[in-house]
Amino acid sequence: MSTPSTILVADDDRGIRTVLAQALGRAGYEVRTTGNASTLWRWVSEGEGDLVITDVVMPDESGLDLLPRIKKIRPEMRIIVMSAQNTLLTAVKATQRGAFEYLPKPFDIKELVSVVNRALTTPRSQPSEDGAAEDEEKLPLIGRSAAMQEIYRTLARLMGTDLSVMITGESGTGKELVARALHNYGKRRNGSFVAINMAAIPRELIESELFGHEKGAFTGATQRASGRFEQAEGGTLFLDEIGDMPPEAQTRLLRVLQEGEYTTVGGRTPIRANVRIVAATHRDLTQLIRQGLFREDLFYRLNVVPIRLPPLRERTEDIPELVRHFLSQAGAEGLPPKAIDSQAMDRLKRHRWPGNVRELENLVRRLGALYSQEVIGVDVIEAELAGGAPIADAVASVEGEGLSASVERHLREYFSSHGDNLPPPGIYDRVLREVERPLISLALEVTRGNQIKAAHILGVNRNTLRKKIRDLDLSVARGGLK
User: Gene3D superfamilies this protein is in (predicted)?
Assistant: First the structure.
């Protein structure tokens, strides 16, 4: 029989050491445990152990600082890092310094045993010499919820690669922040990060924006212009709202991904493309594929590593930390210091946040700028979150019923009409669409088709309104709707 592998465990929590010793012992491993880094270092330097499991925070030394020392004398040894700090920076540093895997606390014991088995059986590759600069810059992503932990782990694994990434999530969830984190902590961090929003550029100009154009390529092209691919050379190109890319540009982008080169608009000489592609969308690309609006082959080229950003309502436990972060930012920008009391924080956690983290950030900035009290109470939060009350009052004055009550009444009738059965799926999007269409139609009607004025009274930017008009298939002409 072969000798069982020995696992060296370092954690200053006696309970965790006991649990790990019992679980790994039942799995057939020899286990040695310690509560400090110095003992772990002595064991490793004496050649003991086949695998290390270490906490980050220990009484005598950080487990992260121990990692490069272990890898220097025993580069073949696999190291699993545990931490209750649970930030993106912790996950990235653990990976960059040679950890096989990073596990946030609390962790699932079955998952840990599975990771140990994988660490001891997966063939070893040559260690990378590419390391990020040691800095304690501000975290690009905030939150310690389970949903965010999984994103941190995924990002940490991607930092040393050039794989294409597709980020999906509702508006305001932080898709560009994730793309920037991939760049800033990755192997291309010394290159440029270039972002382009497909929904914000006229369709006929997207190819020129992406690939550049030669002088005389089209009317108005009076000189050569570089495109975003050329500007991002050696760095990262972030293609935001990729679902809005027109078919012609999709074909050219697919050719770049397949062949690694492109030509400018009006050009003949192929140019090698040396960029990492990160794409993002809030739309369902599989549905666009079925509708013939997005190329399936391009989707698979971009969707090598999918990352879904959860909406804020799915990670409400992160709201207090996000609020503190935004209050701190506001204070650093010169706004008066503020705090949120516990009842107000609870109210924030119960809100649905249709605008996600961006909506929360805007609210916190308003609190800092508009209110004199140092501690914000629940009454202020209620007033801010009830920003649509005047609309409801206008409805009530006609029908004696608030907008919310009216919607609820109609929905109750709709659900009741199905008896013991459930309504068909997709009601959320259908209800939003039924409200959105007349709202935008009436805004365009009262502004006589002036999209700038309509966007102003709706409180959205003009590009968002143009996109909504296109999505809802509204025909607009000067003077009103067609």
Answer: 1.10.8.60, 3.40.50.2300, Homeodomain-like, P-loop containing nucleotide triphosphate hydrolases
